[in-house]
Amino acid sequence: MFGLWLVVIGAGIWLGVAFRPTSVNLAIPGANGYYTYTGPRGLPLAVGAPWGTSCKPIVFTVERNIPAAIYQQMHGVVLDARAAGVDVTLENINGQWYPESLYPPGLVNAKVEFIPIYVSSSKPPTSSGGYPGRIYFGWDTKVSPNGTHEVLTDLQATLYLKSVSGGPYLIRKSMRQLIAISLGVSTSTLRSSVITDGSNVDSFSSGDMTAMRLMSGCSRVS
To answer: Domain map of the chain by residue range?
Structure first.
C-alpha cells in the first residue's frame, strides 16, 4: 500500500512528493492546474472512474472515540462537498450511515466504498524536515482492464490529534484534502485551491469542485 503524510509548516501545508506531478501525465483534462496521482505501478488513476465505477458513492467512517468537536468539523465539510455534487457522506459517531444521504436511492453496503478515518493521540511522526505529521493517507490500486490506468481498491486516513489541536481550520483542511484524494484529485497549483500546498483557503473553490466532479465522474448537484 502506498502512503503519504501531510505535515504542518507554519500556517501552510506540505504535500509529500508521492502526489506531485511526475513524468507521467497526471493533469486532469478540463481542470487546468489540477492533478490526479498514481498507484504502485506508476499509472495515473482513471479519469471519471478512479474506483473503477463512475461516481462511486463514498462513505467515510470514523472511530467511535473521535472527539465530538472534530467530528462536527468533518461533517460540515462533507455536507458542503455533497451539496456541490459529489457523492460522499459521513457515518455518525454511532457507526451508522443513511442511504438517503447518497445517490442513487436504495444503496446498500455492497454498493458503496467505505473509507476509514482513524484518529491517534500518539505523538505524530515527523517528516525528514522535522515537521509533525498531521494526516496520513494509505492507498492501493489495481491496473484497469485496458492496462492504461490504475483504479483505487483501498484508501484510509489517520488523523493525528496533537497536530490539529491548533484549531478547527486544520481539521477542515485535512478533511477537504481527504475528500479530494478519495475522488482522485491529489493536488493543485492554484493558490485559490484549498488543496494547494501552503494554501490558507478555508473552503472548496469552484475549481476544486470542477476537478472533483470531473475526476470522480459525478455531475449531479443535490
So the answer is: 2-33+53-150+157-216
What CATH number does the domain located at 2-33+53-150+157-216 have?
3.40.390
User: What is the CB neighbour count within 10 angstroms for residue 126?
Assistant: 12
Summarize pLDDT for 168-204 with one digit per residue, the tens. Answer: 988 998 899 999 999 999 989 999 999 887 788 899 9
Query: pTM higher than 0.85 for the full model?
Result: yes
Query: Is 4 a residue whose pLDDT tops 60?
Result: no
Q: What pLDDT, in 10s, does the model give residues 20-49? A: 445 578 999 999 999 999 888 889 999 999
Neighbour count for residue 217 (Cβ, 10 Å): 20
Contact 91, 97 (CB under 8 A): yes
Q: Which residue reads 484549498 in cell numbers?
A: 194
Instruction: Choose among 60, 104, 52: nearest CA to 220.
Output: 104
Alpha helices in the chain (DSSP H): 68-83, 168-182, 206-216
Distance in angstroms (rounded) separating the CA atoms of residues 154 and 167: 29
